[in-house]
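Researcher: Go.
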Amino acid sequence: MLLEFALSLTVVRSIRCSRYLNQSSKTRFTMHLRYSNLRFSSLSCMVLSAVTLAAPASAATVAISASKDNTLYNSSTGSLSNGMGPLFAGRTGGLGVGPQRALVSFDLASEIPAGAIITDVQLTLNIIQAGAGSGVDSFALHRLLQDWGEGTSEAPGGAGTDATPGDATWVHTFFDTDAWANPGGDFVSSASAAATIGTSGQETWGSTAELVADAQAWLDDPSSNFGWILIGSESVPSSSRKFESKESTNGPLLMVTYVPEPTSVAVLLMGGATVICSRWRTS
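Model: Structure:
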């Protein structure tokens, strides 16, 4: 658009020069034309520079590993956790623990420039084991509303182990000093994304408007970034999934596509071109 405007100025200036020729001598016309060309040349450079630098930036995609993760085990005492072990979500069978919910968070602000516009978000988890009652079950991601912790507790199995200071549990956001308002976690009731998953291998929650909105809000205000809680088919016995955590080779991975914010140089050039155009038109 700016380039078309710059070219149109040539036509307008030519018309003005023709009118001037009818009113003045050939010598005065030549001097005026040279002066006009000099002014137009400066304007053209400014406009073309602005066009070049202010052109839409190319989209970029970044892979972000989890900054923290944990598992909530249904325990009225809030004494179980698994901060350093694998993640579990769904419902166990013979162990009698009941529902399990996985927590995961990603530090977007350290990987994506401020002011960027996020356009696509995908989460991938790697299943390493499934309960005997597992089929093709639905697992949903919900945006969390409170911060939570990851302690040093570690259990390889689905029963969890004793929580350590700072662990998230079914009762606590940070064991054993701070609590959820609602046991089992405080989260938005509507899911940001849901996927029907199998019993092994990588599973991806594809991009949705809600996932993009979550990520954009966290980038714009990192203090609101509490991550997601993964909730499985809790009414189906032995439907729990065991996922690799961030301590593993194939831990949670968030793929984010974004468009960087225009540079300040381009904005200044655009503004300068506007001012010059305004003055040129009034001369």
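Model: The helical segments are 2-23, 26-53, 209-220, 264-282.
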